[in-house]
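Workshop exercise sheet. Pairs work together: one partner reads the sequence aloud, the other fills in the structure field after running the prediction. Swap roles for the next sheet.
Pair: D.N. / O.F.
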Amino acid sequence: MPYDKKTRQEIENALDLELIRQQVEHEALDFQAYSAFVIDTLAKLCAPIRDEQVKELRNITDIVSLFREIFQVIDVMKLDMANFTIQQMRPYIMQHSVEYEKQRFTEFLKAQAEHGVDGLLCTKEWIRRTYDQVLNGAANNVTPSLLVVESYLELLRWPDGYGYPETLMMDKSRLLDLRDRIQLLITTASVLAITYNCVGIAIHGLQHLRETLTQGILQILEHSEEENLADVLISIGEQISKDVNEALVTHGFSPLEPPAAANMKGQIGKLSDDENVIRKLIAARLYDFIKGMILTPRALTSPVKLPSGLSAVQGEVIRCTGRFLRITGHNRAVFGEYYANIIDEIMSKRSSDSFAEPSDS
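Structure field:
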């Protein structure tokens, strides 16, 4: 409101503090008139989402309660204005942030070069390693854009022993947290896939059971981060068997036969192997979903259809994907030129090497 001089003048004229003080001293203060003016003013200034809240003020007759509610509405409107200002300024803030980070990273590379160090060594290794993996996957057309996306996806399955890309060091902790969370979701979805496949149609459609199983798996995994996954999966298998049998009996079915229960727990226990078929399938679907969101950005707030097997963890997947897109989007804006140069160098070298290879004839 600092720029709305007319409204500001109207408020100052109506709420003349000296006049109000005199009215109070002579017990002539008209609370209703002042409250009506304040409410009318709030109605003109508030965001549409606050209209109902302001409207309800007119129904309050107790003076103390009314002014308490008025101050609460004003506090909320201050937050609305702050959020609006941030939203309006966000593009400018982001642009300045990108330029600032570019400048600082250029200075970093220059300082490294003066000491004979390649400041992009780990970044080059990261992209080169991803390029080799994509080629080994029989990709027919590896474009620079696709290679950047695949490189970002590698961060979600990053081995602890590898040097982290210099261009992502500022976001390393957040990305590693996301990696761990994604792996946890893959494990959860894989356990559920095995459970429903082993138990069969008897538990399909039991939404409460699905929620119970999902939350139970997540809680065990979240509180067992330092333990060996194979040992944790044994505990999860036991809990799943217990919950499933209780649900079966509650809905008039017989509990799992011991061989069937043992088979289910055995399959769950094998999920600690990264090469497990079920785990690889669920992981591939999740990575493909995130990849699609990067290649074809769209609002995650609108209904999003997840691949089969991930519906039980949909909320978590969408939240993690949103965080990942924000980090990688900003990173690409800052370091995209470096990635383009590295990729061009890699592809040119590979083309040159292929051309130089002697033929069999």
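Discussion prompt: The mean pLDDT is 87. What would you look at next?
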